[in-house]
Each structure stands twice: as C-alpha cells, then as structure tokens.
Amino acid sequence: MALLEVEDLSVSFARRGQRTVRAVDGVSFTVDTGEVVGLVGESGCGKSVTSLAIMGLLPKQPGLTVGGKAVFDGTDLLQLDDRSRRDIRGRDIAMIFQDPLSSLNPVIPIGLQVTEVLTRHRGMKGDAAAKEAAQLLDRVGIPDPKRRLKEYPHQLSGGMRQRALIAMAVACQPRLLIADEPTTALDVTIQAQILELLKDLVRDSGTALVMITHDLGVVAGMCDTINVLYGGRVVETARRRPLFREPRHPYTVGLLGSVPRLDAGRGERLTPIPGSVRDLLPWAEGCAFAPRCTRRVDACVGQPPELVSAHDGRSYRCVNPAPPAGATPAAAPVDPAAPVDPAASVDPAASGEATSAGGQVPAPREEEKP
Amino acid sequence: MFRFIIRRLLQLIPTLFGLSILLFIWLRRLPGGPETAILGERGTPEMRAAIRRNLGLDEPILIQYGRFVKRMIRLDLGTSISTKREVTTEFLQRFPGTIELTITAMVIAIGIGIPLGYLAARRRGRFLDYASVGGSLIGICIPVFFLAYVLKAIFSENLGWFPSSGRQDPILGATRITNFFVLDGLMTREWDAAADALWHLVLPGMALASIPLAIIVRITRASVLEVLGEDFVRTAEAKGLTENVVRRRHVLRNAMLPVATSIGLLTGGLLSGAVLTETVFAFSGIGAFLAEAISNRDYPVLMGFIMIIAVVYVMVNLIVDLSYSLIDPRVRVR
C-alpha cells in the first residue's frame, strides 16, 4: 500500500461578493515508501496549497473548504482533529519551505528552533537535546554546529538557513518529507548543494519525499515519479524518463519546451506557452488548459477530459495528446466526436529507443501542428 | 551596550540645554508674573516692582538665565515662589505618587491589553474582535476626567468599594521613607498601610489606564495579525508544536516589538503627570501641582519639574531601547 494516497483533493476559498476560487480541484497522486515524487507546475497551479492542505496548515479562515482524502499510512489526515494532527506533523510528516529566512523565527536562536522539535516529539531536554541538535546540524552539513546553535537566523547565510530548516524537518526521522520549492530562494550553486543534501538524506533514511517545484531541472535530477499540475488538477503522471522523453499532455510539452537548453542552436528561441495561468477554464466546463493549448480541438470544451491511463503506469488528462516519439504526425489529430479510447492510444514507443542521457532536461523538438 | 548608554546620556545634555532655553523664553513670554499671582488685582505698581526685584526678575533675562544655568549645574533647582520650599523637596514628595499611579495604570493596561489584543487577533472577525476593537475606540474617545468621575461615582460613592480620594488614609499614620506609599508600607512592615495605599491607586489607575489600554489592545491586535501570517509561524505549526508553544515562543515574542515601543511612549506620557485624574481623586502627584504652578507663574517649579520630567522621559525610552535588543537579537545597540 502506498504511504500517502491523495484522492480527489480539493481546496476552495469562498469570499463574500467574489467568485469562489478553486485552488486545488481534484488532485490525486500517491507516494510510496522511500519514493521521491515531484509535483510540478507554474505558480498558481495549486502545488503549494496541495501540500499545505495535506499538512493541515492552510490558514483557518471563513470560506475555506477542503474536500477529498489524504490517507497517510491508513489514516485520513483531513479527518483528524487538531491535536492528532499536531502529533503527526513534525514527527511522521515534516515540511521544508521556500524562503529559509522568513521561515525561521528571527528572535530565537537556531538551537532552540531545532530542540523544540526534539522536545515535542522525542521528549528530549537540556543537554541531550542540545547534543542531538548539534549532531543534526552536523548531518546537514553545517560546520561548527555547537556555535551555530547559539546564533540567530540573521547570522547565517541563505544556504545555512535552509540546511538548518532541513535539520529541523528530519529531526524525528519522518517517513514523509514535503519540500515546497526548497531551492527557489537560493542562488544556483547553493541550490545544487541543497538538492544533493536532500537526495542523500532521502537515500540514507528511506524517507519518502514530495518535491514541489516549478523547476524541471530539479525534478529531472531527483524524482522517481512526476505529477504535472495545471489549474489545480494533475494533468499528467509518469515516471521521470518517460515524461522527459515523450511528454503526452500538451502542457507538459509546453513546460519542457520553455526550458532553456545549453545545447540549443544559436538564435534558437525559447518556446513559451502562450497566455497566462489566469486564462483558465473551470475544469467542470472542459480542459482548464484549453484556452492556451496549441493542440486544442472541439472536444476539449464542454466536459472535463477523462484521465487516460497508458502503459508503464503513466496517465494523462487530454483528449488530443501529443503524439509519442516516432508516431507520424498524421496519427495525432483525433476525431473530435469520439474521445480517445485509452486502450487505443497506447503505443509501443515508450520503451526502447535511444534517449538522451537521463538527468538532463531534453526538451522535445518542435512539433508539427496538426 | 555600555557605550550606547553613555552616549545616550551624553545626548541628554544638549537636549536639556535646548529645552531650558525654550522653557525660559516661553515662561517669560506668558502675560503676568508671580507678582500678579501673589498680589492679585489689588497690588500697586510699586508693590509689584518690589516683588519682582525681590525675586530677581527685574534683571536682564540673560543674566537670569545665566543664574539658572549656574544653579542647574550644581543640581540646585531653587525655591518655589508659592510654597517657599525647595523645588527638589516638592518634587521628591510628589513624584513618587505619580510613579505609583503610572505603574498601576500601565500594569492594568498591559495586563489586560496584551491578552485581549492577542485574542482579538486570533478570533478575527468574530464577536470578541469587534467588541475589543469597538471598546478600545470608546476607551480612546471618553475623556479621562469624565471616566474618572464615573468610576468614582459608581465604585466609591455608590458601592463604597474603593476610597474616593487621597493616596492613603491619614488615620493610619504610616511611616514615610521614600514617599512611595506602597513601598514604604512594605519596608516598614506596615501591611495595612501598604494595602490601603494600593487600594487608593485602583480607581485613579483604572481611569488613567483607559487610553493606554485601548492603544495597547489595538497595537497588539494588529501586530499579532501580522505575525500570524509570517512564514515562521507556519514552520512552527509544521513542526507539530503545541498551540501554547507556538503562541508564546513564536507569535507573541515577535508581536511584542511594536508593543514595547508604544509602552515606552505611553509610560513616558503618564509620568509627566495626569492633571485631571489627580484632581478628581485629590491624588497628590506632580500633575495637579504643575497645573497650579502654571497659574501661579511659579517659574522655579515649572523649570525644575519639566527639566526632571524630560530626564525621566529620556530614561524610560532608553530602557525601552535596551529592552528592544533583548527581545530582538537583530537590533544591536552600538
């Protein structure tokens, strides 16, 4: 059984006199023990809200509705009362946030911020807690941990702060770690170090990791399985290699196409996705991506596209998916009257065939327009 | 830290110098003089001139000022024109009352204001929030002397729970050491005297607390609301800490920074005396005495008291600045 099973999670914010915002609209994904799962998408696609909803950290406000299920090790986190949730948070599920400076309390020393987790969940106090905290800082690569424990967040560099936050998150050896854009606020060289550290920690401890990011480079370097989110719903799920080799959902294609590449030819331009996230069609009225989609057909509008399961555990939510590599462009257009039959769209191209080295981000070449 | 204190105290010298010049000019520009207060309307010009000569007011203003500065340097504030007693003595006798009253008012204001402000922020948009925000608006609007009369009428005259005037019942014949009546009672182990003095502080303290209370509620509420939205509070929640720890260690500690500043300013304000409250409760602090000194044109008292109040004000704010560096490690005093 999966460690975390998120099923049809939805989060909406209702405000008087304003349209209800459905930030998350039926997200489903699973995380297995020890697995690294990516949640990828542009800003505003609902990735952070998803993680906060799972943690029960959404700011309590009138008009907030959370629906669906988030089953962690047999218990639905969304049904728990506040106290049991506090017991699980920090002990079984921990979280790392985007901005390490604002995520640390500026007026208390790093040491206390680490030991308070140990005190809360492992009952450690005084010297024992301080010793363990020093070991934790050491483990996340903070030099001279004893001195650092007495320092305040503003005395640490950005990378050190994120390391300290990671130390707090792994203090109780959680079974699931959720990292919400952990490298966005850091500069590039530090980003690589932090990702490397997370990878090591996950590998050594068997902790499962949910990596939330808009950075496909991050995903390519770490994740086993990737969920691409758009408009608050998962539009494509695949293992890393198949996803990069042959993205099926036009949004994934667009995302990969807009990543700059070092091996791009001179004068070659990036291919941005036209429009913005705000040009959104509610899922109830069809595919949310339809207004921006280059492969849009009539069937995209009217009813939400079904989730199409392909072989190899991958699935996508599209009536007119990008053709797999090797398929002739002529095969791509679909009769708008008849939505794609899942079985029919299965193609043998996914396995075999030489690929560019895994780990890089191979953007697909320009597709012919149908 | 030590250098910071020294520098702030040295800064006090030019401040006091400037203040004394301003005060001197301002007081002498007031129409009339001590002779009018002493003689009233009846005095002949000759009598007025005699009194002015006696007080040294007939000399050129620069010489008068020079004499004042010379005395100031020896920490001699002169003698009151109306009571004929040393200004320092008058001050030492009355200021403890004002300090006691200020402390009482601030204890009430802080003790109720911070928890109420916190709860209002936590229950934002609900009854308690509206009640405390609305209540604090009323607290700011009601004139203090009016509130003082109402409190006195209800709790003293009708219910008889608290004494209506004075600092202590003279029947007790309490021993005086510092003129802090509560402290004196504790030092001499005259418990009933201490309790009685404390009892006398309740009503004027409540009246005086109304405005600081309202301000502290509002600032705490706004500050807590801001901190609640901070990322580090979310981090604390993500650690699974108990609500109590999140509140004390992460929310309140950070929310206290602006509150501390306002507490400093409010305390300083109260220390300069609450004329109306002191008058309503016949409480002998510096407020009522100062007001009287103004109408008597008692120059030495006015000069002396205001100079000392300025020093106290600066001291209070120095303490606030120092406490800032205790609350917030990012603030380094240099």
TrEMBL record, chain A:
Superkingdom classification of source: Bacteria
Ribosomal protein keyword on record: no
Region (Disordered): 324-370
PROSITE patterns given in the database record: ABC_TRANSPORTER_1, ABC_TRANSPORTER_2
Membrane topology (UniProt): Peripheral membrane protein
InterPro entries: AAA+_ATPase, ABC_Ni/Peptide_Import, ABC_transporter-like_ATP-bd, ABC_transporter-like_CS, Oligopep_ABC_C, P-loop_NTPase
Keyword Cell membrane: yes
GO terms, molecular function: ATP binding
Annotated localization: Cell membrane
Listed PANTHER family: DIPEPTIDE TRANSPORT ATP-BINDING PROTEIN DPPD, OLIGOPEPTIDE TRANSPORT ATP-BINDING PROTEIN APPD
Family: Belongs to the ABC transporter superfamily.
Protein name (record): Dipeptide/oligopeptide/nickel ABC transporter ATP-binding protein
The organism of origin for this protein: Micromonospora gifhornensis
Organism classification: Bacteria, Bacillati, Actinomycetota, Actinomycetes, Micromonosporales
From TrEMBL, chain B:
Spans through the membrane: 9-27, 101-121, 133-155, 197-217, 257-290, 302-327
Keyword Ribosomal protein: no
CDD domains noted in UniProt: TM_PBP2
Domain ABC transmembrane type-1: 95-324
Membrane topology field: Multi-pass membrane protein
SUPFAM superfamilies in alphabetical order: MetI-like
Keywords recorded for this protein, A-Z: Cell membrane, Membrane, Transmembrane, Transmembrane helix, Transport
Subcellular location(s) per record: Cell membrane
Pfam name, any one: BPD_transp_1_N
UniProt family annotation: Belongs to the binding-protein-dependent transport system permease family.
Protein name as annotated: Peptide ABC transporter permease
Higher taxonomy: Bacteria, Bacillati, Actinomycetota, Actinomycetes, Micromonosporales
